[in-house]
Write a structure and sequence with these properties.
The chain has 141 residues and is mainly β. 12% of the residues lie in helices and 32% in strands.
Length: 141
């Protein structure tokens, strides 16, 4: 015997809040136009990490999965996988042109902070809040 189930519309209380600066969205749009990549989106993902925080990666992608979260910011379609989304909530993505490091994207996320070691430093040799050479260390924590 079949029963009719009551259906409810659930509102996502953890709405995706990733901010793309005007400079970042303009840079993505320019790259998509220059390469004639119709239907592509900016995929942002966790690319590893360690005691100094999480490293993020970005790619232009047109392969979207059912488990991906997709949304539009400043006219740019953004795609985030199901694991990375928790690290990217509240993040800001900017395009910067640093005279020393060159031009590129910078991700600042409040959910991607590192941890501290009781022995006072990162296993990769950085002490007291310094950089861990790319954001990873050998402790795997």
């Amino acid at each position: 015997m079949l029963q009719e189930l009551e259906t409810k519309i659930l509102t996502d209380t953890n709405a995706v809040t990733i901010n793309l600066s005007t400079a970042a969205s303009d840079a993505v749009k320019n790259i998509l136009n220059e390469r004639n990549l119709e239907g592509y989106a900016l995929r942002v993902y966790v690319a590893g990490g360690g005691c100094c925080g999480v490293n993020f990666g970005m790619a232009l992608d047109n392969n979207f999965r059912d488990v991906d979260t997709t949304f539009e910011v400043n006219g740019v379609k953004v795609v985030v996988d199901e694991v990375s989304i928790d690290y990217l909530r509240g993040a800001s993505i900017d395009f910067v042109n640093d005279p020393v490091r060159g031009a590129g994207f910078a991700v600042d996320s409040p959910n991607a902070k590192g941890h501290s070691h009781s022995e006072g430093g990162c296993a990769c040799g950085s002490e007291g809040g310094g950089s861990c050479g790319g954001g990873s260390c050998s402790c795997q924590n």
